[in-house]
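Bumping with the actual sequence this time:
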Amino acid sequence: MKSFRSLVCCLSLLLVDLAQSYDLHDPSYILGQSYSQRRNNGVPYRTLNPAATDSQCRSRPLDLVFIIDSSRSVRPGEFEKVKIFLADMVDTLDVGPDATRVAVVNYASTVKIEFLLKHHLSKDTIKQAINRIEPLAAGTMTGMAIKKAMDEAFTEKSGARPKSKNISKVAIIVTDGRPQDQVEEVSAAARATGIEIYAVGVDRADMRSLKLMASNPLEDHVFYVETYGVIEKLTSKFRATLCEVKVEIIQDPCMCEARLAFQRQTQTSIQDLNAKLAAVTRKVEQMENTLGRM
């Protein structure tokens, strides 16, 4: 009997301790904190504020060069869709002298720098310049285009910021064919200088060549769409990639997935304890009644 009463006493103490953190009358309302939260002394987690991400998201400063294929395989209507894609991309960026600067390199059998990073420092003037671009036709000298971008478009003379500014240099290549020159070595050289390369393939684009051009990890830097008609689908993907997400300290009511799991597990445990306590209480009352009659 003494050991039984000790067991009941221990259970009571355990429930009192739990009651300090949880409302046992309403297990769905969890007042306590998980171990990881107590370990952090109640400091709120760093979480993404969805409102800030949706409405205040802006691109991190970039020196961004588009390298676009206008060979004969790209029909006039398709090339217009490429230009729309570029304009839509510009709309997602925070453009300015101290923000993102944009250049365009156009290529086929020859390579033409349509405008440099220093030429247009507002969205409107960039989009007007994009609208004036004409296709070059003929071949697909992708390697030559990458080299020209590296040697001329990404230089300080052309408007790129010095390394001391720590501004990311990004090239986005859009092509629908197989390069007629070598791209592996020149792409490696460009990446070695700090240029991050994204390769966008359309329709008949050679996937092996795209992978040879792109930066690692390839799953983040190689994109493919079936036709130029759906290339605009990539705008949101690039926006997420190039966006500088603002991280704010906020008190999230559910804090994190770990806490939700902890809460669910604790709710179940409390319900089980309540049921067991009720059963133990009934047995104690029965035994006390029995002892009282003896």
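The tokens above came from a reply further down the thread. The beta strands are 46-48, 58-59, 62-69, 101-107, 111-115, 168-175, 195-202, 222-225, 243-244, 247-249.
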